[in-house]
């Protein structure tokens, strides 16, 4: 821990030449998103890092979007109606134009939504879009989404940047991308219909490493840093900024290890169970020292609308010494070389190194040796660090279908298929509970904690609010003054 803090301070010190003379209260908002330089990407073809996701939200809105608090508000859709049975969502498209001035039509929006769920799509939300039966333009300004079964949280999916509406790499705003030399992008809000300039400030967006982003903010040259995860949390903490500058989202999702090999020790459910039992999650969370970070032993978080009481492993209430004793016995019962050796695919980042050190120590106590390997290397387990895009049970469970991973159970897949086809909420809940119980017994995943998402926020960004989806639209960063 001391080494990581020292290393982080070294990063900050080497970047002190960035300079700065305090945080401006007016003028463009300087944003650093952690990751590669932002590009306007098609999420049906390529995954979005935080810089690309933020850019897409700014210049290519979807039907709806998240407000600062993570609630749904209109975007391309000026209004919508949900049928009494929850199977039809009817959206009225507002008067919007593409960058060339042509009018946005309902058919263009519908075609984009159909593409996201199509067979060829690589959109990360595709597995949970299967409930959509059809997307049809009823008129030039009205489209209807018909579902196979009620999905109360559909709008949360439609608000994600992966569902932004593009046409030939063009969006509909609210911001427009302006020419700017160099790696930094300039986003400006166009004048209103009467030619009056917008009161929204320009955005200066760049993608860069966490070390550079934190240093830029610390030196007063940045207003907002977004995209922070557990990987780089130690860098933000080492900057020793005022407490109200570092913000944490109450995000839910998956943070843990998925088994990526269906052979060797990982093929035995008893061994997978033993590896999970042996981990001291309380000590891990304490060592990471991140506010709000909570240990997790179950695949699903509690409180989801469709399944408020998820299945828990049968060992969850047992004390740690008993769990480790049982885990050691399971490992000792295996034939073969000792210790068992496992490869764990995990990025080489400060926060993740702390996680791996705890895993290696805990597993050594039960006769298992662990080696960290690069994310793309052959491995027995791989790290998953992802925020759920909606409060959907199926987002969690579909990560571990037989189409998605090497460790699965066809019976769980069948229950998920039955849940998708269920016509009543009660039938759907029963099938989801069955799938959850099966996957809990199969143990395709070792939950560790809730995902960590952090931001650095300058005082002028009075519209910023932490939220459960860790989404922070540039439109919401500065609240209007009345």
What would you note in describing this structure?
By secondary structure, the protein is an alpha+beta fold. It has three domains: 1-56 and 173-244 and 452-482, D-Maltodextrin-Binding Protein, domain 2 (3-Layer(aba) Sandwich), CATH 3.40.190; 61-172, Alpha-Beta Complex (Dipeptide-binding Protein, domain 1), CATH 3.90.76; 253-447, Dipeptide-binding Protein, Domain 3 (Dipeptide-binding Protein, domain 3, Roll), CATH 3.10.105.10. It contains 13 helices and 18 strands. The protein has helices spanning 2-14, 50-59, 106-116, 154-158, 210-218, 233-238, 269-277, 281-288, 320-332, 350-364, 393-397, 410-421, 425-442, and strands spanning 29-34, 64-66, 72-74, 77-82, 88-93, 132-137, 142-147, 176-178, 185-188, 203-208, 224-229, 246-248, 253-259, 340-345, 368-373, 381-387, 445-447, 453-457. The strands form four sheets. The protein has a seven-stranded mixed beta sheet, sandwiched between helices. It has a five-stranded mixed beta sheet with strand order 15-14-16-13-17. A hairpin with a 6-residue loop joins strand 8 and strand 9. The protein is globular and about 75 Å long. The relative contact order is 0.17. Residues 1-24 have low confidence and may be disordered.
